[in-house]
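Example record for the data management plan.
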Amino acid sequence: MSETSGYMRFFPYEQPYANQHEAMDRIYNALTRGQDVLFEGACGTGKTLSSLVPALEVARKQGKTVVITTSVHQQMRQFVAEARAITREEPIRTVVFKGKGEMCHIDVGYEECQTLRDNTRAVVDTERDKRQLERRQRELLAESQSGDGSATDARSAVMDELESIDDRLEDLEEKNVCEYYRTNLTGDTDDFFAWLFDDVRTPEDVYEYAEREGFCGYELLKEGIEGVDLVVCNYHHVLDGGIREQFFRWLGRDPEDVIAVFDEAHNVEDAAREHASRSCSERTFESALDELGDTDDPRTEDAANVLSAFHRALVETYEDSFGFGERERIGENWEDVPIANDDRRDDLTLEFLKRYSGQGIDDDLEAATNLGQELDKEYEEAYRDGETATRTECQTLQAAAFVRAWMSEGTMEGLYPVVSVTRDGGTDEVYGRAELYSCLPRQVTGRLFDEVYATVLMSATLQPFDVTEDVLGVDEPVTMAYGLQFPESHRRTYAVETPPLFSSDRDDPAVQETVTETIHDAVRMTPGNTLAFFPNYGEATRYAERLERRTDATVYVDEPGVSVETLRQTFVADDDAVLCTSLWGTLAEGVSFDGDDAQTVLVVGVPYPHLDDRAEAVQEAYDAAFSGTDTGWRYAVEIPTIRKTRQALGRVIRSPEDVGVRALLDARYSRAAKADLGKYSVNGTFPHEDREELLDLAPEKLKFAMLNFYADHDEYDGETPTP
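Corresponding structural encoding:
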């Protein structure tokens, strides 16, 4: 057996897919050298095992732990299935980890949980001390009854200690404790850990076991995770710096002893940006000022001075932004209020500086922070002592920390100041929040990649690799890409030259008629269900309504507020239906339509995201960070849009037996239109292998092409449709 093929002990099936062995070899060699890997693989490539198998081998040889992480719940289930298959062949110790909020039996926050654990541990330790003293007291009593005078004196001292311990226990019994955690400390957990590592257990499995036996499963997982071979977890366990440090500590691993595998890695950019952004709502400032109003401390005046000025500035800033009738149109979703300026600080900061009057912002913030820390400690002690049923969070401390960050970091590269507003559905009140929005994901991910031993970033849509390297801060990675491994004869991919759906042309009746008729043709010629993705929900609804007037197929519309899984199940149960949805919705990725669930997928238009001020800020940040013409537009808008388009196309053709059509309805996708549309063409943004499969087609020819394709594969069970 060669050195590289040694990893096959972790491969749980008889034979790898085509190219899978090559991918495993390359990843194994890269990880052995401690290199990062960018791995693009279409459905059927076996990306999970291609990454996981060599990673486990390197980790086993070098004493490391593999952490595989995803943002998609369905993929976590897939990892569990693969890990279970592996452990049948080569036993590995695996933990599937979720956040405390999903595993807590009594639904308390992190701060409350820490207090409960401290109190519970104190009770258990004191009870143990009492048992030891009682045992010693009985021994001394027996010795004294046999005439040992020194034993009598010693027993008297022990009785005094017992009395003291009884007093302590009486005090402790008034404090808040967790009975589940008490069972962890006092019960026999050997059976739990034997059960845990006998197979690969999901968090739901652990929760049910722990609930049944009265344990805290989350804390037991934290105890059992040290030194395991594999951990499956969510993005935030590794992207959030504070959580990552603690998480690795539970693992008993330094960062350089961790191999991190990111699934659906095209989502890491947005996830990292979310983790790096900071916000604070108007409600937090109001609570902080109420908190200070109830506090008798000489620092209260200074703290209230600076926080009230920022609070008033926040309200004034968004109120001044409203035009006639705009305040009444605010809904329950957050809506941004532009405040950034090119030549000076943002409007909120300027309003804050205008309203603030005092000895100095830094001094007042220092007073607020110090006072907040003391209040937070008091809240901790009150909860610990059982004086309060819940652990109060110090709003003054949170508000002061945010204002300090706003003033000190607001002009840093890649941070964009934003004010947003929403309406409280219960009170109908409009209120706002301030946010430092992070534009450069590499400020989060670059640090992570430097810390850990190596990473594998895998996705079906990771190209162009140079952009991924720049955006995420990956230094000289090994790159590899594998297209669909299924028979090419089983699929057709068309670039249908319908009129470009520029936003200015979407209301043109002639354009709408051409697009509707082309979609109708595709639905008629599909021997089963059709998926149709649009630039937004509004366009999806528009064309769903137009289709309903001319098709016999059942038309489903993905609407906000409707369960996506319920809609999916209803749709796939049909056999002649079309589902209209937004490409930016949850059905565009992470959801498979296998076999006959859907046979044709359409992407209508080039679904650029809504280009608001945040999007422009990201473009500007990329322009500043990376050289090149139109870098910001390409990195922040065009490439993410094409990645989403490719993800949508991947919802069908999920196995070698599947037969289907994938069609892009917009002339900007076609090769022929590149000369006519110039910079508006997106054909060149697709990877080479995708472009090679794209066949240009006139709208009126689509029905004939689909008819011939599906007829050649005998997909029409009944009467062949008439073009």
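Summary line stored alongside the record: The first helix runs from residue 20 to 32.
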